[in-house]
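Now for one specimen:
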Amino acid sequence: MVDFQDRLRIRATSHHARCSICVRHRLIIRRLGQGPGRLAQIAEYKRHLGRQYRDRQVYWGHRSQSRSDAISGAPIRHLSLIVDGMDQAKHAYPKSESLGSKEFASWSRPRLAATTILAHGHAVVVGLSPDNVPTSGSRTMELVSYMMTKTLSYIHWPNVFLHLEADNCCKELKHQTSLRMMGTMIALHRLRGCEFSYLSTGHSHEDIDAYFSLASSWLERHKELWSINDFQKCLTAMLANKQVRVNEPKRDVVVFDRFRDWKPDFIIGILLVKLMRVISTYITNAVTLPLSWGQWRLHLAAKSMRYPASNLGARAAQEIAFWRASGASSPEGHRGARCASCVQTGALERYRTKQ
């Protein structure tokens, strides 16, 4: 025992919240005697454990696939992200040994909101916000957007299927804001697809929680952290060690005190801007500004000339061939009342010349 006293220790009682279903089954089994009732409770308990284990297997599969794609050298097709927030009590500031005095015992220190995103095989992003910033779903999605556009800018996202994992609470990802944002990105073809997975309550302790334990121990070593920037530098120094999260080469600690409000009005605004860009491009490439139904038909006829199987395109080609064969003057110089067919044919000929 003396030889292993520096390696063995008595495990402390866990402070993590336990699954209520597990606690209920254990208490019932403990109080039941031998018989069919006890066997039935044991079977229900095993069924519950099997269910949560299958949830973990789904997450482990997404994680391994994401890491494999990251080191394969091929274009990224799948990416797994897990999002969680660290205990705010670990980020109370200012932090100093002098604050342990009795004079400061009644002081209430502000706490930072710390959210971490692990992109398996790619990056670790830590977002810090002061206590006056609401920890809403918009804040989480802003951090996800930051990771996608800044840290992981080398990934071509329209080809990526995104797997988002989190614990079973509404703070991080289980809300309408995340659904709206991901749905908008898929609708705009900025993302190939997205899947949300939520681990069972009381069974959500995964690798990101192991990272939190490491970060907590690191922060305990530093006794003088007076500001948000000090916390940022401290965590950056920890992530500079390549032995921390060896599978994620990119690391970033960002401090942000404002974010977009990803509400339906903001999403609708994005869609309207995208629609206006499409309409602007459409009008710029059009033959004439489509103001009437006849001119819309004219533009559609010109567009259909690219497809030989189209009857409308074939008819337009025949009319243009007739105009060229007859040697008639262009209808552009005519200033009086003009025939609708002539106007249509002349515009089609001009469009064909530009092509």
Q: What stands out?
A: Confidence is low (pLDDT under 50) at residues 286-313, 327-338. Residues 62-100+107-267 form one domain. The first strand starts at residue 78 and ends at 85.
